[in-house]
Amino acid sequence: MWLVAGEAAAGPESFLYTYGPLVLMFVVLYFLLIRPQQKRQKTRNMMLANLKKGDKVVTIGGLHGTIMELGDDTVVLRVNDVSKLTFERSAINSVTAAAAADGTK
């Protein structure tokens, strides 16, 4: 009889004590890990979508170049006066200098 009365009184509280820390951990992990990663990915996708001819870029491997041609998935970079190299668009790490507003580069 004592066990039945004790279990009935502690039902909602034991649920909170059992699953509360788990829910709290998920919320903390979401705000510390998942959400910032989603923001960085969104910023990177916007940068890759806004590439244009004449932009000076750095690839993931550290190669500096100027965009000569853009395809859907590829980018042709001019590394020096003679060399042109083709990369995947996703290989662009950052834009160091944007092209002029009039597009004459």
Record the strand order, biggest sheet: 4-3-2-1-5
Q: Report the β-strand fraction as a percent range.
A: 25-35%
Helix content: 40-55%
Largest sheet: 5 strands, antiparallel
Order of helices and strands: HHEEEEE
Count of discrete domains: 2
- Principal-axis shape equals rod-shaped
Oligomer: single chain
Total strand segments = 5
Q: Strand pairing plus helix content: what structural class?
A: alpha+beta
Low-confidence stretches: none
> What is the residue-mean pLDDT, rounded to a whole number?
86
Number of helices: 2
How many angstroms does the end-to-end distance come to? 87 Å
- Rg value: 27 Å
Secondary-structure map with pairings?
Elements: H1 2-9, H2 11-49, E1 56-59, E2 64-70, E3 74-78, E4 84-88, E5 92-97
Antiparallel strand pairs: 1-2, 1-5, 2-3, 3-4
